[in-house]
């Protein structure tokens, strides 16, 4: 009997030790859970400092790491949504301002036309100006709709091989009368035999926006030079004008939406180049803008041959 009791004493002691360790571990486990719950509650209630306490290795530490990663992701999404709301508000304000200006002009012209009476020449002049304002509003709304579709990812680029000579000829067609009236000349070099892999309709929109911008700054009797070249990396369309060039202060912001440079015309909305940039970025291309040493500016439209090429916008002085 005594020998059995002697055997039970170590077993009882071991049970007490393990029992005590179990109780200690459980209390520590509950304290860790309570601490983690309190930290999560503070973060959920808007605490700016995103930090969770450190824990020993185990299930709590693993849970803590997963919660931290989830919290960081949610915080990033929240910040992005806040930023997007600010951008949307700014864009709506810009759009409202851009549309309000020609609408105000139209209202003034309508009132003036009513006061002119039966003067046919003056009425015709006012009607021509009103038509010009309506065309500006129509172009602005169309461009904004295109930007919205690109922003929303609702545009599916249908890329195919396009003959570059024929493409540039069609790109210049809408400007032929303007070029003739101003006595300007346009020369195309190096396009024969070259092709680009792009969406024809959208790329035509992008290149025409650049042509429109360059022709506006090309002086009467001036020349617009379009030079094409290709290499194993990309095919390039370089559009050079003889205008005043781009101000160094404007270069970093040239493709920003609604940005108007120092030399921008009164009719400029500041979205044509932004639209061109978005179109090129959607189809593995870039737009580079630089000032020419001999004067004027040059826009380089590059279509990369490799799909994994870096797509961004570069600016050079």
Description:
This protein has helices at residues 2-44, 59-116, 120-151, 164-172, 176-181, 200-217, 272-281, and strands spanning 159-163, 185-189, 195-199, 223-230, 234-240, 285-291, 297-304, 314-315. With 317 residues, it is α/β, with parallel strands linked by helices. The chain has a six-stranded mixed β-sheet with strand order 2-4-5-7-6-8, covered by helices on one side. Strand 4 (223-230) and strand 5 form a beta hairpin. The chain starts with a helix and ends with a strand. Mean pLDDT is 79; it is low at 307-317.
Structural class: alpha/beta
**CATH 4th-level superfamily of the largest domain:** Histidine kinase-like ATPase, C-terminal domain
Helix proportion of residues, in percent? 55-70%
What would CATH call the architecture of the largest domain? 2-Layer Sandwich
Strand portion: 5-15%
> Ends: how far apart?
101 Å
Overall number of domains: 3
Q: In total, how many beta strands?
A: 8
């Amino acid at each position: 009997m005594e020998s059995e009791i002697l055997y039970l004493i170590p077993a009882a002691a071991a049970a007490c030790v393990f029992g005590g360790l179990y109780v200690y571990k459980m209390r520590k486990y509950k304290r860790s859970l309570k601490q983690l719950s309190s930290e999560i509650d503070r973060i959920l209630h808007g605490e700016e400092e995103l930090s969770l306490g450190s824990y020993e290795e185990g299930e709590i530490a693993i849970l803590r790491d997963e919660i931290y990663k989830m919290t960081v992701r949610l915080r990033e999404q929240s910040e992005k949504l806040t930023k997007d709301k600010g951008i949307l508000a700014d864009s709506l304000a810009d759009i409202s301002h851009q549309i309000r200006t020609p609408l105000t002009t139209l209202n003034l012209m309508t009132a003036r036309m009513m006061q002119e009476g039966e003067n046919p020449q003056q009425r015709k002049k006012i009607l021509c100006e009103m038509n010009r304002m309506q065309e500006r509003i129509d172009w602005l709304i169309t461009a904004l709709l295109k930007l919205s579709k690109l922003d929303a990812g609702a545009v599916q680029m249908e890329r195919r091989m396009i003959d570059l000579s024929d493409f540039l000829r069609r790109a210049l067609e809408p400007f032929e009368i303007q070029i003739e009236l101003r006595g300007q000349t346009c020369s195309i070099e190096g396009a024969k035999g070259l092709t680009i892999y792009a969406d024809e309709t959208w790329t035509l929109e992008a290149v025409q926006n650049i042509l429109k911008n360059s022709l506006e700054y090309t002086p009467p009797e001036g020349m617009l030079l379009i030079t094409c070249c290709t290499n194993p990396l990309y095919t390039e369309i370089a559009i050079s004008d003889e205008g005043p060039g781009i101000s160094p202060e404007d270069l970093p912001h040239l493709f920003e939406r609604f940005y108007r440079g120092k030399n921008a015309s009164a009719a400029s909305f500041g979205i044509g180049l932004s639209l061109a940039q978005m179109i090129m970025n959607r189809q593995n291309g870039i737009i580079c803008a630089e000032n020419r040493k001999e004067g004027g500016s040059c826009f380089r439209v590059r279509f990369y041959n490799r799909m994994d090429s870096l797509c961004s916008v570069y600016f050079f002085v």
